[in-house]
Amino acid sequence: MRKILMMLAIMAAPVQAQQVASAEGGVLRALDKVSGVSRDVEMRRGETARVGNLNVTMNECRYPSGNPAGDAFAELEIVETGDENRLFAGWMIASAPALSALEHPRYDIWVIRCTTS
C-alpha cells in the first residue's frame, strides 16, 4: 500500500516546464535502408536539404537552455520530390526518435543535435 501511495504522490507532483533555447541549426542523421548507408546532414534553420528523393526542411531546432549538447528537438517538414503531400510535419526528439518518426519505406531520418554556431 505504501508503494502505491508513493507512486500516486510522484504522479500528482507538478511538472515543471523546461527552459529551452533556439539554435541556429541542427544535425540530422539519414539512413538509406536499401543500401545501408547513413550520413549526417548539417542544416541551418529554414534550410532545405535533399536526402535521396526527399526534401527535408528544418524550421526550428531547440535544446535545454545552458546545455547545447542536451536533448535536441527539431521541427521538420519532409516531402518527396515532385509530390506536394507531406510525408512528415512536426517535431522529432533526439532522445526518442520512434516517438515521432518518418514513415518511409526507404529512408529513416532522425535528429542528432542542435548547432549553436
TrEMBL record:
**Pfam families in the record:** DUF2155
Keywords, comma-separated and alphabetical: Signal
Under the heading InterPro entries, the entry gives: DUF2155 (IPR019225)
Q: Which residues form the signal peptide?
A: 1-17
The superkingdom listed in its UniProt entry is: Bacteria
| UniProt keyword annotation of Signal present | yes
Q: What is the official name of this protein in its record?
A: DUF2155 domain-containing protein
Q: Which organism is it from?
A: Sulfitobacter pontiacus
